[in-house]
From TrEMBL:
<dbReference type="InterPro" id="IPR013115">
    <property type="entry name" value="HisG_C"/>
</dbReference>
<keyword id="KW-0067">ATP-binding</keyword>
<dbReference type="InterPro" id="IPR001348">
    <property type="entry name" value="ATP_PRibTrfase_HisG"/>
</dbReference>
<protein>
    <recommendedName>
        <fullName>ATP phosphoribosyltransferase</fullName>
        <ecNumber>2.4.2.17</ecNumber>
    </recommendedName>
</protein>
<keyword id="KW-0368">Histidine biosynthesis</keyword>
<dbReference type="InterPro" id="IPR015867">
    <property type="entry name" value="N-reg_PII/ATP_PRibTrfase_C"/>
</dbReference>
<dbReference type="InterPro" id="IPR013820">
    <property type="entry name" value="ATP_PRibTrfase_cat"/>
</dbReference>
<comment type="similarity">
    <text>Belongs to the ATP phosphoribosyltransferase family. Long subfamily.</text>
</comment>
<dbReference type="InterPro" id="IPR011322">
    <property type="entry name" value="N-reg_PII-like_a/b"/>
</dbReference>
<keyword id="KW-0028">Amino-acid biosynthesis</keyword>
<dbReference type="GO" id="GO:0000287">
    <property type="term" value="F:magnesium ion binding"/>
</dbReference>
<keyword id="KW-0479">Metal-binding</keyword>
<dbReference type="Pfam" id="PF01634">
    <property type="entry name" value="HisG"/>
</dbReference>
<keyword id="KW-0328">Glycosyltransferase</keyword>
<keyword id="KW-0963">Cytoplasm</keyword>
<comment type="pathway">
    <text>Amino-acid biosynthesis; L-histidine biosynthesis; L-histidine from 5-phospho-alpha-D-ribose 1-diphosphate: step 1/9.</text>
</comment>
<keyword id="KW-0808">Transferase</keyword>
């Protein structure tokens, strides 16, 4: 039975649960449930703190897990990222009051507050910068106001939390993070089950990022129409009862849906229909 670690709380938990449900797995009914067996899919879910997930997977206690790339790197765990999951995107950045620092070198000799001490220490070492790292559990933006640090390093999504504290980011982002699937380098007999999980999650990512588009177009325009909707491999072109027309079916990137419909309409295509893809294996 494949043993999967899933965030039990925090920013990652709801999206991770949604993604697993879309991939056909059982969801938990109660947020206090810590272990859940999904016998039909031969998997067991362990609901854990995202920070601990890399530790369990790295030690081999659990086979795979969902966590943040930033948490994986911070942990120093030997677990490896196998797949980016497309949610909880953020950057990990230094910030300070305006004028205090403009590059990582300016941190030398200062105090840096963070919940990601491993990540920050290795970044500072890579840049040959000596600083005192103050390890905090959360709400690190307040550390400067309260006088325990000169600089912070934290997760930035919209930047609202920083702005509210009168702070500004500086230097290059330390990391671009998002939710990731992690596992060990060698999974032994668990590898086939890990492959099935990866294919299912990849199916969810594809189903989310594409729509299915159908339309009718005059036969003489089909090449131009297919150039607008090339699909992943090649569009399906089917004859219609009216020999002057064909029906075309193709996958289109979701973010291009309306632009492609406009272009098809301009070309002369009609009955342009768009449907969601519920699941897929490419
Ligand atoms: N505002 C945010 N936007 C996107 N990702 C975020 C955000 N805040 C935290 N994360 C991501 O969530 C993960 C941390 O999850 P964790 O549950 O430990 O903390 P949290 O989401 O801040 O929850 P809490 O603060 O309630 O403990 C990291 O991968 C981090 O990048
Ligand atoms: O750029 P923003 O959109 O403002 O998001 C970033 C903030 O979100 C997270 O905080 P959270 O609310 O999880 O609190 P925490 O710092 O206590 O973890 C993160 O630690 C940042 O503080
Ligand atoms: Mg937080």
């Amino acid at each position: 039975m494949l043993r999967i670690a899933v965030p039990n709380k925090g920013s990652l938990s709801e999206s991770a649960a949604d993604m697993l449900r879309e991939a056909g797995y059982r969801g938990r009914r109660d947020s206090k449930e810590l272990v859940l067996t999904d016998a039909a899919n031969d998997v067991e879910f362990f609901f854990l703190r995202p920070r601990d997930i890399a530790v369990y997977v790295g030690s081999g206690t659990l086979d795979v897990g969902i966590t943040g790339r930033d948490l994986l790197l911070d942990s120093g765990s030997p677990a490896v990222e196998v797949m980016a999951l497309g949610f909880a995107a953020s950057t990990f950045r230094f910030a300070a009051r305006p004028g205090v620092a403009s590059s990582v070198q300016d941190i030398d000799g200062k105090r840096v507050a963070t919940s990601y001490a491993g990540l920050v220490q290795s970044h500072l070492a890579d840049h040959g910068v000596g600083a005192q790292v103050v390890r905090l559990d959360g709400a690190v933006e307040t550390a400067i106001t309260l006088g325990v640090a000169d600089v912070i390093a934290d997760v930035v999504e919209t930047g609202t939390t920083l702005r509210n504290q009168g702070l500004e980011t500086f230097g290059e982002p330390i990391l671009r993070s998002e939710a990731v699937l992690i596992t060990r380098e060698h999974n032994g007999s668990a590898q086939p089950a890990v492959d099935v999980l990866c294919r299912r999650l990849q199916g969810v990512l594809t189903a989310r990022s594409y729509v299915m588009m159908d339309y009718d177009v005059r036969v003489e325009l089909v090449e131009q129409a297919c150039a607008l909707t090339p699909g992943l491999e090649s569009p399906t072109v089917s004859p219609l009862h009216d020999k002057g027309y064909v029906a075309v079916r193709s996958m289109v990137p979701r973010h291009l849906t309306n632009r492609v419909m406009d272009e098809l309409y301009e070309l002369g295509a009609r009955a342009i229909l768009v449907t969601d893809i519920a699941a897929c294996r490419l």
